[in-house]
Design goal:
The structure is a homodimer. By secondary structure, chain A is an all-alpha fold. Helix content of chain A is 70%, strand content 0%. In chain A, helix 7 (112-123) packs antiparallel against helix 9 and helix 8 crosses helix 9. The A-B interface holds A 119, 122-123, 156, 158-159, 161-162, 165-166, 168-174, 176, 179, 182-183, 185-186, 188-196, 198 and B 119, 122-123, 156, 158-159, 161-162, 165-166, 168-174, 176, 179, 182-183, 185-186, 188-196, 198. The first copy, chain A, binds a DNA duplex through residues 16-20, 23, 43-45, 48, 53-57, 59-60, 63.
Chain lengths: 198, 198
DNA sequence: CTAAGATATGGAGGAATCCTCCATTTCGCA
DNA sequence: TGCGAAATGGAGGATTCCTCCATATCTTAG
């Protein structure tokens, strides 16, 4: 007989101990630095050293390289997601969406880590700390979609998830520097595809 | 004084010795097998062992993992590229292109290696043995474009390179199995974007 | 404030993988 | 058949991964 039934999913994750949170943030900061400087394939000891943290601590917080990369770019992706409303206030839905996407891709240029992180976040339907970022991306895209349908600018119905995957794909394919024009062209095609009357 | 001026780029690569060619092909065959079975992050010794080849031989032929992956999927990508003409014979340009792209993405589903190889090939403007595959992809896409412009189906002018990058992006973003529907939706958007009158 | 339990830490070190080096073998050609 | 060039294999040093656990730090109850 159990006094307290074990919940399937804990309501709220037990808050982290203060030192743990500090270390975790130091690791993220170090990872951002190192990834910018030397790319994403660096030895993880380097990150640990720069964060002034044992390697085990790094592995406890970020069990795989992918998780660390995603963690490192979470903030930036959140930042990039903001601004959908401002754009929609000043531009028609299609132009707003294009501008927003261009900003996103522009930041991913020369930073494969950001593209990878976006892929993880888009994929992550269940929470692992990614739920918030996942929602931010989807919410922003949904706003553009809603505005476009409301104003009769978009003719084809799609889920936000489709655009999220598309955005992730464009990032991954044009993460090499100097592909701005090409990326912009793909964005135009995609968004214009929404306008095309099926 | 040089008798024969050193050409900047050798006209034609000196033909490989027979045994070298044999080993090289054994490596590719083994790589295809292993990649299908256990993914692309396997230890390369495994590939060498299966090809019955020393590890050094593998490294000589394929200096990096990326080169090996690309080599392993070169044939398949060539095969996927063929068939553009048949599709164009039976379908309008937009439908033909969509079908061709769907076939491509469908094959990349659950096979990250294929998506990576496609990325390498699309990127490879200069030859490294990739020139042939690069041209096959671009040529196929150009055919769809030409047909579409000729028949007034496509309204927006783009370079084949843009579509190649888009294709590579869709592959990379939807390489996880079970994304068929989403990938198809992105393809539709992209191709319909070509139809949209700018 | 203190003590005790819970949590988190660091870094040693075994295991896995990478990748080069070079003595030896094989091939192609005359 | 013999010779020089080309190709080979695999040993092994270097690197990187990642776990394990003795120790240190935090938190909370009293």
């Amino acid at each position: 007989m159990q006094k307290e039934p074990m919940p399937e999913k804990p309501m709220r994750e037990k808050p982290m101990r203060a030192d743990a949170r500090r270390k975790r943030e130091a690791i993220i900061a170090a990872a951002v630095e190192v990834f910018e400087e030397r790319g994403v394939d660096i030895a993880l000891d380097e990150v640990a050293r720069r964060a002034d943290v044992g390697i085990a601590t790094l592995y406890r917080h970020f069990p795989t390289r992918e998780v660390l990369i995603t963690g490192a770019y979470l903030h930036e992706i959140g930042r990039l997601c903001a601004g959908a409303d401002e754009l929609l206030a000043g531009l028609p839905a299609d132009e707003a969406m294009k501008t927003w996407m261009r900003r996103f891709i522009g930041n991913a240029q020369g930073r494969p880590g950001l593209a990878m992180a976006l892929k993880s976040i888009v994929k992550a339907t269940d929470a692992e700390g990614l739920a918030a970022a996942h929602d931010e991306v989807y919410t922003a895209l949904q706003k553009f979609l809603d505005a476009g349908y409301r104003d009769g600018i978009f003719a084809t119905r799609v889920e936000a998830a489709v655009l999220a995957t598309a955005l992730s794909g464009i990032s991954l394919a044009s993460d090499a520097a100097g592909r701005e024009a090409q990326a912009a062209a793909i964005i135009d095609l995609t968004v214009n595809g929404l306008r095309y009357p099926g």
